[in-house]
Design a protein that fits this description.
about 170 residues, alpha+beta, Peptide Deformylase, five-stranded antiparallel beta sheet, 3 helices, globular, binds zinc ion
């Protein structure tokens, strides 16, 4: 396994709507394992393939932040159904360091996905897990958490993103 570099805003790959995984092979399993290691090394709770430069619908999630090593949830081609409730809580993103803001997310979702062998499964997620899954599925559609912000919170985000664009050019 190896730790991969995480792409930072404004990398254009972060804006790609990723195509579905169609081949469930050792390459996919190696990518998932590397992503789990990368997420744990970065002390993140979730990571989407596009964040490591791979345009495919794969995300890894571990709301224990790596404390339980085998606990990572791997979602291939995830689809969110049946969102319920609404809760505003703090989010951040490994691709937008040093910025957090409160985002509205459903409190409960149903997720349909495949595992690394291609077998379909479903799960119901609540609270933080639901929030992280929504954040990662957004990534697979090229959407960043800051896109959900409105008003004053959006202005704060815009200032931070402008600084990141300037640093990327410098
Ligand atoms: Zn993110």
């Amino acid at each position: 396994m190896s730790v991969m570099p995480i792409l930072l805003y404004p990398d254009p790959v972060l804006r790609v709507r990723c195509p579905e995984v169609t081949v469930f092979d050792d390459g996919l399993r190696k990518l998932a394992a590397d992503m789990v290691e990368t997420m744990h090394a970065a002390v993140g709770v979730g990571l989407a393939a596009s964040q490591v430069g791979v345009e495919t619908r794969l995300a890894v999630i571990d709301v224990s932040v790596g404390e339980e090593e085998d606990d990572a949830l791997v979602l291939v081609n995830p689809v969110i159904d049946d969102p319920k409730g609404d809760e505003r809580d703090v989010e951040g993103c490994l691709s937008i360091p040093e910025f957090t803001e409160k985002v509205d997310r459903p409190t409960e979702i149903r997720v349909r996905a495949q595992d690394l062998e291609g077998a379909p499964f479903e799960l119901v997620a609540e609270g933080l897990l639901a929030r992280v899954i929504c954040h990662e599925v957004d990534h697979l559609d090229g959407v960043l958490f800051v896109d959900h912000l409105r008003g004053l919170r959006r202005e704060k985000a815009k200032r931070h993103l402008r600084r990141m664009r300037e640093e990327a050019i410098a």
